[in-house]
Each structure stands twice: as structure tokens, then as C-alpha cells.
Amino acid sequence: MMIKPKFQLDDVKAKAQGLWMDTIFPRFNIEVRFKKKTPCPACGGRDRFWYDDKNGNGDYFCQQCSAGDGFSLIQKVTGLSFPESIAEVAAIVGLDATSNITDADREKWRKEREYREKEQRELEQKMRENIARKAESTFRNAYQGDFSLYLKNKQVDKDPKIKITHDGNLLIPAYDEHGKIWNVQTITPDGQKLFIQESGGRTGGCFFVIGEVQPDLYDAYIICIAEGYATGMSIHMATGHPVALSFVANNLPKVGAVLRQKYPNAVFVYCADDDSAKENTGLKYAEEAQAITGGIIVLPDFTKIKESVA
Ligand SMILES: [Zn+2]
User: Fold this and answer.
1) Residue-level pLDDT at 276
2) Where is the domain boundary, 101, 127, 145?
3) Ligand 1 centroid to residue 77 C-alpha, Å
4) Looking at the domain assignment, is residue 157 inside a domain?
5) What is the whole-number distance in angstroms between the Cα of residue 86 and the centre of ligand 1?
6) Mean pLDDT in order along the chain per 10 residues (310 residues)
7) I need a labelling partner for 54 at 20 to 30 A (CA). Which of 117, 170, 211, 245 fits?
8) Which tens digit of pLDDT belongs to each residue from 264-273?
9) 67-99 burial string, b = 16+ CB within 10 Å, else e?
């Protein structure tokens, strides 16, 4: 269908300023959030879309389907032509134009968007399951060695539930609350830490427990929560308490939340890494976790440790 605009594009743009997010996009069932990473209304995904309206024309950026203004987003999502998108927006902002889209159109676009999002979620789930299988078989089939330079350098014990490979790597499984392995962390002899294909794999909310949690229905019992193996094992050796590892700092709140569900009566002790040199991420995430689950935070005093080894 050909529509000859009875107005100038510049007039439509001027009238549309400030109306894109709350008035114009919703008419096409397009949802955007201001300066937040979201799925792309046109091509789905997870964090690939960014709406900032930087020129006031409904401007956005998508890592997958590139950047554009509000007219281009409407065209991508709905399949309308450029003149059609201008005419529709003109009608919405009160310029002399007749709208040709119907509720049925809007409903169709909404369904299409839901389908794209569902497809994307299924794809991601498949990737996570693939990596979970790989992690499980890597851990199960590891050809065992018995010496880890990393453990020796850090002067910490081997938990019986982790493995040392024949070439001296540590393998530490990342479990969910049901005991399913989703990933496995490798720590090389020189201390590099790697997950299997970090991008597609799941680590969020997954953990490993050094020692054993023995839930007590009546008395308070302590679970320490730390980031990495060496720190966690030092705490376990010093205190005898079980230590759950979150592997990375930003996983502390998720692991705390999962463990809170599983052990409602436990007292949590978050053993934050001292990252004071780099923006205190350890403490920041420990505080976030503590706000969710309660418990206490302890920070290691590395100056004391330094003095004692000097
Ligand atoms: Zn896109």
C-alpha cells in the first residue's frame, strides 16, 4: 500500500519528541526501557538492546540488528514500510493522518515478539545443558593425579570431593541446590581459574561446599560463604565450619539466596575477599548478599597474614 505523507518528516519528528517510550512504542506493542540492557524488541536476545533516545527520535542501539531511530524500530518489529511508519506515528502524535493499524496487528506483533523471546530462552537453556553434560563428564572421567602445585603454594588441603588431574589441575564442580553439576572450575598449577565456555554455561546460583553442612533443627549452625577455593579451604581449616564457594564475587548474593532456601536455620558468615585495591567488589557483593539472607560479614586482614609470613 502506498501512502503519500501529507506532512513533513521533520514535523512528525518534532511532535514525537518525548513521546516515543510511553506513547508511541506501546501502540505497536513495543516495550523499551530507558538506558537499561534488555532483549531487543526486533531480534530478541538477552542484553543486546539499549534505548537512550539520544537524539530525541526514539533512538536505540542493538548489538545484533544495529542502531536506528524510532521509525526504524517500528519497521523492524512490525514490517511496516518507512512511509507507513511515518504515517502511523503522525496519526499518534495528532497530525493529519489516518492510522491503518488495528488491534489485530498489535496482537500479532506481540505474539511474534513472545515467540522470539521463547525461542531465545530455549536456545540458551540448550547451551547450558550442553555445558552441564560436558562438565559432568569432564569431572567424572578425569584421569587422576595426586599433586597440585596450587594447593602446595597456597598451603591448603584437598577437599575429598574435588579432583586433581594427572597434569596437576584442580577440578571443582559447580552444583545447583539439587546436586546437579552445571559447570566445573579448573584451577591450573599457576592459579588460573577457568570455567567451561563461560559465556554459554550456567554458574549463577551454583556453588561447591568444602566440608559438610550438617543441618541442625534446634541449634544455630554456621555456614561460611566465600569466593575461591584457597580462601574457602583456609577458612575451613581454621574454623572447621563448612564453606560454600560462589567462585566469583557477583555470584555471592545468588548463592546466599539459594542456600537460605535450603538451610533456613543456618547462620551465614560471608567471608569477603579484600578487594580494597579494586573498588571493593568482594565487600559490595557480600553486603548485597547479607541484605537478602542476613548473617555477618568478615573481611580478612591481609596485613596480619603478611606480617606472619614475613
Ligand atoms: Zn536487535
Assistant:
1) 64
2) 101
3) 9
4) no
5) 20
6) 66 92 94 93 90 95 94 95 92 82 86 86 90 94 92 95 96 96 96 81 94 84 94 93 94 96 93 75 92 90 46
7) 117
8) 999 999 998 8
9) ebbbbbbbbbbbebeeebbbbbbbbbbebebee
Query: 117-125: long-range contacts (C-beta < 8 A, 24 or more apart)?
Result: 117/39, 117/44, 119/44, 120/39, 120/44, 120/45, 120/46, 124/46, 124/200
Q: How many whole angstroms separate alpha carbon 137 and alpha carbon 151? A: 24
Distance 34 CA to ligand 1 centre (A): 16
What is the 44 CA–ligand 1 centroid distance (Å)?
A: 6
Cell digits of residue 15 = 511532535
What are the cell numbers at 67? 542502531
Q: How many of the other CB atoms lie within 10 Å of CB of 238?
A: 9
Output the domain CATH number for residue 14. Answer: 3.90.580.10
Which grid cell sits at 81? 514500510
Q: Which of 48, 82, 101 is the last residue of a domain?
A: 101
89 half-sphere exposure, CB direction, 13 A CA radius? 35
